Structure formats: structure tokens, C-alpha cells
Amino acid sequence: NAGVTQTPKFRVLKTGQSMTLLCAQDMNHEYMYWYRQDPGMGLRLIHYSVGEGTTAKGEVPDGYNVSRLKKQNFLLGLESAAPSQTSVYFCASSPRLEQFFGPGTRLTVL
Amino acid sequence: RKEVEQDPGPFNVPEGATVAFNCTYSNSASQSFFWYRQDCRKEPKLLMSVYSSGNEDGRFTAQLNRASQYISLLIRDSKLSDSATYLCVVNKKGSGNTGKLIFGQGTTLQVKP
């Protein structure tokens, strides 16, 4: 039982490049979330999903897109990376309220 | 005003000390409250839920005051391994069954030998 896994763990992008972050969970949770964490800001919700095939915007969705084609996977896409998107990205899954987090992806945009 | 506010600290305490963290939330309709722990460069993990009647788990005690919209976490007999950032978490207003949570920015605790 791996819990929540994230790929990749680290990435450096140049401004304008695109990439996809993958989140996978093996706990059969309905809800999944993408957060970013910046110093002094706490965790901020980017997008979330309440079930396979559904997605919704969170607090800071601009510049990101998501897809949940399979229940166990939640993908976060950056279409045209900007330096303001330099952050640590956490994925989480939840059966209802308690959220289980992945180890995070450290992204630097130059 | 932030939806969930915490004193960021850091709190520097000696081993064995008792330390208390406070948190205030702005949405009086919030129903669910938690404390999460985050170690340096790691992911947050649930420490404990907070119930209206207060609850205790070993050296940790959490309390909720709905009238004042205030949550607290008390750690007794601090250990070096308690050094971490403690996140106050509240469910989001109008979140229904989406499970959306609001995270405070965290309070950093450093326990010294």
C-alpha cells in the first residue's frame, strides 16, 4: 500500500515550458486535491476533484489545468510555466475529510 | 483577514516543557477542525481532529471554543521529535461534501535539548 505518490519529485523548467505532474493513490479515495505551498502562505488549493471524471477550481487555479480520467490518478498541468509558479506542489486524497498527502514536487521555473 | 490565522513563531522551548499553540478562524459555520503536523521538507500529516468537547491523545490536547472561533493545541513534556510545523485546519465554508479544507500558515516549534 503506497498511499499517495507524486511524480516527479523535483523539476526545473524554463519560462514558457509545459509539464504535467502526476498524482496516484491506491486507497480508493473519491476526493483528490492539488495544493501549492509557498513560504508564509500556507497551503493553497489549486484544483480538486470529487470523483472520476470531475474537476473543480480551487483558490488559485489560474495557469493550471487538471484531469481525473481514472479514479486513482489526478494530473496537474502547467501549460506555459512562469517564475511565479515556482513552489512545492502537494497532492492529497481523501475519503471524506481527513486528507492524505503525497511527498510533494519541488518545481523551479527560471 | 485570513480565514485561518496562526502565530507563525518560531516557538523555541527546552525538552520537557509544555507549549500551547493557538489558532483563530473567521467562518462561524465551520464544522470540522484539525491539527496537522509538517516536518521540514515533508508532507503534512494529520495529528488529530478537534472536537467540541476537547480531546486528548497522549501528550497532545486539542480544544475548540466555537463562541470565540478559537482552536488550541497543547503539547506536554515536549520531545526533540516534536520539532515541526503545526498546521491549524478548518473545513471551508459552503464546502458541502467536497472535503475542502483551509490550512493556516503553520506554527513552527523547535524543541532544544
Largest sheet of chain A: 7 strands, mixed
Task: Tell me, briefly, the overall form of chain A.
Answer: globular
Question: Secondary-structure element sequence of chain A?
Answer: EEEEEEEEEEE
* Quaternary state of the chains: heterodimer
Pairing-aware structural class of the strands and helices of chain A?
Answer: mainly beta
List unreliable stretches of 5+ residues of chain B. none
Distance between the termini of chain B: 37 Å
The helix fraction of chain A, in percent, is under 10%
- Which overall shape of chain B is indicated by the principal axes computed on the Cα atoms? globular
Largest interface: A-B, 23 and 21 residues
Q: How many extended strands of chain B? A: 11
Structural class of chain B: mainly beta
- For the secondary structure, the number of strands of chain A is 11
Number of helices of chain A: 0
**SSE order of chain B in H/E notation?**
EEEEEEEEEEE
Percent strand of chain A: over 45%
Describe the 3D structure.
The complex is a heterodimer of chains A (110) and B (113). Chain A has 110 residues and is mainly beta. Chain A is 0% helix and 53% strand. Chain A contains no helices and 11 strands. In chain A, strands 2, 4, 5, 6, 9, 10 and 11 form a 7-stranded mixed beta sheet that branches. A 4-stranded antiparallel beta sheet of chain A has the order 1-3-8-7, with no helix packed on it. In chain A, a hairpin with a 6-residue loop joins strand 5 (42-49) and strand 6 (56-57). The radius of gyration of chain A is 13 Å and the shape is globular. The termini of chain A are far apart. In chain B, a hairpin with a 5-residue loop joins strand 4 (33-38) and strand 5. Chain B contains no helices and 11 strands. In chain B, strands 2, 4, 5, 9, 10 and 11 form a 6-stranded mixed beta sheet that branches. By secondary structure, chain B is mostly beta strands. The interface between A and B is medium-sized, with 23 and 21 residues.
